[in-house]
């Protein structure tokens, strides 16, 4: 497999689960027409991430199960189109719903079910159940296979998330998102891609959704090319408007780069990082909430 076209569905929610299902299916069909092999939704697409300024008793009723008609419809669509689909849901879960990405391969098989590990407990997401781990899977596309993992929104603000996925062999991290992607968060994504030598594709909601501004992006993780001193690893940076944005990842070039360059796991010294997993050590910061 040499290249893969990724579609970021930077689209507006409709205000209902049924409406989002219809709009999402239409967007996936359009992405396929544009040549995409993989389509990714923004965070919590089933409900449109409509959880702010609403009592949890109201928004939690929008949760759907991983075997719901909403989810199964995207599995059937993936098989019909021969296109992998990463659909996001507010997932029914005992003790409180989860913020979940469900990934179907080009045959409509569910290959990944990832729940957001770093829930925003300073806000409405305190009512959610965090995911338990990070996972990497072999995602089958029409043109071949790619190693895929996932982070959801706030996960990307913790370097450990991408680091673990890198150690698992991830080549492409999918990041459904729902927040303002300003220059510092975009720089954060660039850094995660650079330091781990992997591609990061982030799909955000467009302007018009509360606290969102579009700016969906793809960084391919290739920091330099011998024959191109001006190469920029940013393959795509969308604007604020709704749309289906396509980026083409040169997977063959990324794999070659990972075989020869010095980022990622090459010169790490894990025996020196014990503080990272010592839960008794408390950082000297006040716990607060995001002002973004």
Task: Characterise this structure.
With 292 residues, the chain is of the alpha/beta class. The chain has one domain (3-277): Nitrilase/N-carbamoyl-D-aminoacid amidohydrolase (4-Layer Sandwich). It has helices at residues 17-33, 56-59, 69-81, 159-167, 183-196, 251-260; strands at residues 3-10, 38-40, 84-91, 98-104, 110-115, 136-141, 144-150, 172-176, 199-203, 217-219, 234-237, 243-250. α1 (17-33) runs parallel beside α3. The longest helix has 17 residues, at 17-33. It starts with a strand and ends in a 32-residue tail after the last helix. The mean pLDDT is 95.
Terminal CA distance: 39 Å
CATH superfamily placement: Carbon-nitrogen hydrolase
Number of domains: 1
Radius of gyration from the CA trace?
A: 18 Å
Mean pLDDT: 95
Largest sheet: 6 strands, mixed
Subunit arrangement of the protein? single chain
Number of helices: 6
Question: Helix and strand succession?
Answer: EHEHHEEEEEHEHEEEEH
Low-confidence stretches: none
- Percentage of residues in DSSP E strands: 15-25%
Q: What class would the helix/strand composition place it in?
A: alpha/beta
* Global outline: globular
**CATH-assigned fold name:** Nitrilase/N-carbamoyl-D-aminoacid amidohydrolase
* Helix coverage percent: 10-25%
At CATH's second level, what is the architecture?
4-Layer Sandwich
> What is the class in the CATH system?
Alpha Beta
Q: How do the strands line up in the largest sheet?
A: 5-4-3-2-1-12
Number of strands: 12
Protein topology:
Layout: E1 3-10, H1 17-33, E2 38-40, H2 56-59, H3 69-81, E3 84-91, E4 98-104, E5 110-115, E6 136-141, E7 144-150, H4 159-167, E8 172-176, H5 183-196, E9 199-203, E10 217-219, E11 234-237, E12 243-250, H6 251-260
Parallel strand pairs: 1-2, 2-3, 7-8, 8-9
Antiparallel strand pairs: 1-12, 3-4, 4-5, 6-7, 9-10, 10-11
